[in-house]
Amino acid sequence: MLIHIDHTPLVDLARKADVELDVLPALGEFIPAGAPLLRIRGQPKFDIASDILRRITLDKERSFDQDLAYGPRLLVDICVRSLSDPFDPTTAVQAIDRLHDFMRQLVHRRFPSGEHCDEAGAVRLVTKTASWDDYVRLSFEEIRNRAAVSVQVTRRLRACFEDLLHCAPEERRGPLERQLRLLDAEIDSNGGSDPAVWRQSDPQGIGASRAAKVMQMPRR
Questions:
Q1: Cβ contact 93:155 at 8 Å
Q2: What is the dihedral sign for C-alpha 146, 150, 152, 154?
Q3: Which H or E run contains 117?
Q4: Residue 67, phi then psi, degrees to nearest 5
Q5: Could you tell me the residue ranges of all domains in the chain?
Q6: How many CB atoms lie within 10 A of CB 192?
Q7: How far apart are CA 157 and CA 202, in angstroms?
Q8: pLDDT by residue (tens digit) across 120-151?
Q9: In whole angstroms, what is the distance from residue 148 CA to residue 74 CA?
Q10: Torsion (CA) 53, 56, 60, 61 in degrees, nearest 10
């Protein structure tokens, strides 16, 4: 697994050697024996192979250090397992809670291009990066495919999508709207005799009323 990239030293190394370095696998990606790790664009002024290897860390397990996708990946695994046997929709809802929080923190975040430049503005290092759409798919695609086995989960997932759509900028709404449409399609196909019940939005998933109660104060 690729678990760490020392970006600044690699940019400096590429500048001195007058090349561009392209890291081929993404963080967290498994690298089989003999697979290419990096592409060098240009002819380096000196041998940089050993210096490159000192700045790229491989291990047998993924790490939270730079791999932002690892946390949600684990939560998705927990959620999907909870919707299998033994069936545990409450744990699935708790996993969605944490995914909701994670995506809310990302919704306004600027995503890096993966291009790292030297002080002169020349691109010296290129790494693979994930987009907002990638994170939406990672966090919700597998769960949404399984959600229609539990009314509790469909309600919680809808509340998550609606909240994210409320706070997302226009350019980031599309992937969320797609997931919501697909959730409705899953409910229509698998949601039992009363799909409207399964489409209720509820942060706890238990069917609690979301209607706001307005207190009328008597006039004096």
A1: no
A2: positive
A3: strand 115-117
A4: -90, 85
A5: 2-58, 70-110+129-198
A6: 10
A7: 8
A8: 999 999 999 999 999 999 999 999 999 988 99
A9: 21
A10: 180
The strand pair at 56-58 and 115-117 is best described as unpaired
Residue 4 structure tokens: 């760490």
Report whether the peptide linkage leading into residue 36 is cis, meaning its omega lies within 30 degrees of zero. Answer: no
pTM of the full structure:
0.86
Looking up tokens 């250090």 gives 65
Both tokens of 203, joined, read 């942060």
Token representation of residue 175: 């992937």
Assess contact for 129 and 111: CB atoms under 8 A.
Answer: yes
Q: Give the integer Cα–Cα distance in Å for 29 and 12.
A: 25
- Farthest CA pair distance, the chain: 88
The answer for 149, left when phi > 0, alpha when psi is -120 to 50, beta otherwise, is alpha
